[in-house]
Write a structure and sequence with these properties.
With 364 residues, the chain is of the alpha/beta class. The chain is 40% helix and 15% strand. It contains 13 helices and 14 strands. The strands form 3 sheets. Strands 1-9-8-5-4-2-3 form a 7-stranded mixed sheet, sandwiched between helices. A 4-stranded antiparallel sheet has the order 10-12-14-13. It has a 3-stranded antiparallel sheet with strand order 7-6-11, with no helix packed on it. The longest helix is centred in the last third of the chain and has 19 residues. The chain is globular and about 70 Å long. Bound molecules: pyridoxal-5'-phosphate. The site of pyridoxal-5'-phosphate has 14 residues, from helix 3 and helix 4.
């Protein structure tokens, strides 16, 4: 079976982990944590990085640091991995689901504008499947309305809006290093910010809220620290990031060349550069999508259907569904989308096997 994703782990990761283990700094102090934090912050172009055990906890930390809580609303896309939506609820705020834009698969800015109320404290923008969303317009809207912008960059490390990296537009931007993300630490995440104050608050929240004096706490915090072992893997992964992105770009170009005119393809939006975290295609409709997935499965190719829109789970998200929104685009894209195998070590022969099987499905 050709999997959808697998991480590129090698000697550098092994050596760093050995170093961490042999140093006995295996908990959440040690040289690799700050190196990883500073490394990612400098790659993206922010002042601070705060490493966490996951992308989900990085998002939760962001909302806690911004002081978002009960009675507050945060506008977020209907179509995303559910951790984005749930991280808002962890802070006792209400996510307000909003439809996406056909070109970027991120938030539709006009539909966000219509949902801003007195309760709106922030927008959580998600860069989906490696595509940058309309983050500059969202930044302008948030400035106009006096609300925060948080970026969920879990799937879009290295993506750009008009030559500027995503992760530099929000007050805080969050990344994930789960095993199938662009770089991995096994499980892990990071929150980036330019603000000394927000960085300080996140560091404190990450460590139970402890203040300057040991065992004295300024607020109720969490244990959201990353281990030095995970950071050791992260430092090695970060040194390979450009190489990983380059390899993925070649794979995408191969897919595009073979599949042009066969099926609708994920494209970089005109305003930016996608990293194609999971290179994706859109079938005609849900029925065609499901039979294509089955056809590929029978050919030994693993794929994924797109995430499900949160508005289809009203038992969980009733209070988040907006009556003025029909979620037409998020519903359609979700029903038609398939993620194809996209990991850096995918060979030319394997890409050909995938594209030949898709062509066979369409009789081309
Ligand atoms: C992976 C992911 C997360 C959560 O990251 P974890 O590290 O798995 O907690 C959040 N948002 C999006 C869009 C993701 O893809």
């Amino acid at each position: 079976m050709i999997p959808v994703y697998k991480p590129s782990i090698g000697k550098e990761e092994e050596e760093n982990v050995l170093k961490a283990v042999r140093s006995s700094w295996i908990s959440s102090s040690g040289e690799f944590i700050e190196r990883f934090e500073n490394g990612l912050a400098s790659y993206i172009g922010t002042k601070h990085g705060v490493a966490t055990p996951s992308g989900t906890t990085a998002l939760h930390l962001a909302f806690e640091a911004l002081g978002i809580g009960a009675g507050d609303e945060v506008i977020t896309p209907d179509l995303t991995f559910i951790a984005s939506t749930n991280s808002i609820i962890y802070s006792r705020a209400t996510p307000i689901l909003s439809d996406i834009d056909r070109e970027s698969w991120g938030l539709d800015v006009e539909k966000v504008r219509q949902k801003v109320t007195k309760k709106t404290k922030a927008v959580l923008a998600v860069h989906l499947y490696g595509n940058p969303c309309r983050i500059k317009e969202l930044r302008e809207l948030c400035d106009e309305k006096g609300i925060y912008l948080v970026e969920d960059c879990a799937e879009a490390l290295g993506a750009e809006y008009g030559g500027r990296k995503v992760g530099t537009f929000g007050e805080i931007s969050c990344f994930s290093f789960y095993g199938n993300k662009t770089i991995t630490t096994g499980e892990g995440g990071m929150a980036l910010t330019d603000s000394d104050e927000l960085s300080g608050r996140m560091l404190q929240l990450r460590n139970h809220g402890q203040g300057k004096k040991r065992y004295y706490y300024d607020f109720i915090g969490f244990n959201y620290r990353m281990t030095n072992i995970a950071a050791a893997i992260g430092v090695a992964q970060l040194s390979k990031l450009e190489n990983i992105l380059q390899k993925k770009k070649k794979i995408v170009e191969h897919y595009q060349k073979e599949l042009n005119g066969v099926i609708e393809l994920q494209r970089s939006p005109a305003f930016g550069k996608s990293t194609f975290w999971l290179f994706s295609v859109l079938a005609k409709d849900a029925a065609e999508r499901n039979s294509l997935i089955e056809h590929l499965h029978n050919k030994g190719i693993d794929t994924r259907e797109f995430f499900a829109p949160a508005h289809l789970m009203p038992k969980l998200y009733a209070g988040s569904i907006s009556k003025s929104d029909n979620y037409a685009v998020s519903t359609e894209i979700s029903e038609r989308g398939i993620n194809l195998p996209s990991y850096p070590e995918l060979t030319d022969g394997e890409v050909k096997q995938v594209t030949d099987s898709i062509k066979e499905f369409y009789g081309k």
